[in-house]
Design a protein that fits this description.
This protein is an alpha+beta fold. The protein has helices spanning 13-22, 47-55, 59-64, 100-114, 163-168, 226-231, 233-244, 246-255, 297-316, 322-347, 354-363, 367-378, 383-386, 389-399; strands at 2-7, 27-31, 73-77, 80-84, 117-120, 122-130, 133-141, 146-156, 172-176, 180-188, 194-199, 203-209, 215-222, 257-258, 263-265, 270-273, 276-277, 280-282, 288-289. Among the domains are: 2-43 and 99-175 and 269-344, FAD/NAD(P)-binding domain, CATH 3.50.50.60; 180-265, D-Amino Acid Oxidase, Chain A, domain 2 (2-Layer Sandwich). One of its GO terms (molecular function) is FAD binding.
């Protein structure tokens, strides 16, 4: 009998298991993959996420993998250019974009070192119930016999297609339609740093350095262009670079050497799912998912995995009724993630609303507000501070922004 079973061992599941095991709880982690292994990902870890790795004693391991630091961010969004970087957060003055083959292996190793039992290559096929309360899971390792495991709480950290969410009937209670698709791959021969450029015509490119001296290159387009794009992925990929950033498109054609197959990312709608019930909870994309545009997936998995670990500890140690502890986890997650969710859903449309256009255009003209912009991106400044109407009034006045463009609230 375990205290907690965690289904899924990547960016949400392994930190959760590690933190619970460090507090003396008996934890079992079941993961259908084996490590090291890859998964589609933005790779990007914000300073707020790196701060969690540092607190857990794992940031040095990520840096030691050879992933290069990024200390300059370059954003261009439909004619608005903002370049710079955030102030340090907990002494962290860079961001990193590690390969998931590297990051996830570090995380699952840390869970084991903390005392969690980890079974790789295990496919969970069903959830066990006693009445309406979840009591565990069943499944099999590879082609082996079916096995059952029982726990006080079962956590689904198994992504957007979560088996746990499906078996407990977790319903989506907030949904925003997905806007775009992404294709990406890895390239030698380029040294571009980090760029996000979105052009009129609703298409975007992204570049950032990762492990082994390679650059990850990505393009994003609206969903209605997917069929045409995939008929000639190589040509379509190059065409987007040529149109959005001609100078990069030329260098890509002349010097870029693709080292792996293209990977499509066709995410489902943005959503919040019911994320707790009797004997179960959801974390990571299993419970809350948003478009990859802002790259907050990994950082949020860390942040809310840690939050869930805190609440589970309260329940397991008898400091709070378990159901109340899990309810508090979901309440805090939804409150704290709402701003990022709304901003991400809007920006992922690849065309700014008049409000965001006015705010970001004015911010790009103010050195002090540009610094606040990068603090918002890094997770060091809350959206309530950045978008406060009184602060925007001062910004518009500082840069002499046209009166008829000064929007203080989102319509």
């Amino acid at each position: 009998m375990y205290d907690v079973i965690v289904v899924g061992a990547r960016c949400a599941g392994s930190p959760l298991a590690m933190l619970l095991a460090r507090q003396g709880h008996r934890v079992l982690v079941l993961e259908r993959s084996t490590f090291p292994s890859d998964t589609v990902s933005t790779h990007y870890i914000h300073q707020a996420g790196l701060s969690r790795l540092q607190a857990w004693g794992l940031l040095d391991r990520v840096i030691a993998s050879g992933v290069p630091p990024i200390r300059q961010l370059n954003f261009e969004y439909t004619g608005i250019d903002i370049a710079g970087f955030a102030d340090p957060i907990d002494g962290i003055d860079a961001v990193y974009c590690p390969r998931r083959t590297v990051l996830d292996a570090i995380l699952v190793d840390a869970a084991r070192e903390a005392g969690a039992e980890v079974i790789e290559g295990f496919t969970v096929t069903d959830v066990l119930f006693d009445g309406d309360r979840v009591t565990g899971v069943k499944g099999r390792e590879g082609e082996g016999p079916e096995r059952e495991f029982r726990a006080t709480v079962t956590v689904g950290a198994d992504g957007r297609n979560s088996v746990v969410a499906d078996k407990v009937g977790a319903e989506i209670y907030r949904r925003v339609p997905a806007a775009c698709f992404v294709y990406y791959s890895y390239y030698d021969g380029l040294d571009w740093g980090m760029h996000h450029r979105t052009a009129f015509g609703q298409q975007q490119i992204g570049t950032w350095p990762t492990n082994d001296g390679q650059n990850l290159l990505a393009v994003m387009r609206k969903n209605d262009r997917f069929g045409a794009f995939r008929r000639d992925v190589e040509g379509s990929f190059q065409e987007v670079y040529d149109q959005v950033a001609p100078e990069l498109g030329e260098e890509l054609r002349d010097s870029g050497v693709r080292t792996e197959n293209f990977r499509p990312m066709r995410y489902p709608d943005n959503y919040y799912r019911t994320s707790y019930g009797p004997g179960w909870a959801l974390v990571g994309d299993a419970g809350y998912h948003k478009d990859p545009f802002t790259g907050w997936g990994i950082t949020d998995a860390f942040k809310y995995g840690e939050l869930l670990a805190e609440q589970l500890h309260l329940g397991l140690s008898g400091q709070s009724p378990m159901d109340a502890a899990l309810a508090e986890y979901v309440k805090l997650r939804d409150e704290q993630s709402n701003g990022t969710f709304e901003l991400t859903c809007s920006l992922a449309e690849l065309s700014l609303t008049p409000y965001y256009d006015s705010v970001f255009r004015a911010a790009s003209q103010s050195p002090s507000y540009t610094a606040k912009f990068f603090g918002l991106i890094a997770g060091g400044i809350h959206g309530d501070e950045f978008f406060a109407p009184q602060a925007l009034e001062a910004l518009y006045e500082e840069v002499g922004f046209p009166q008829d463009k000064r929007l203080l609230t989102q319509a």
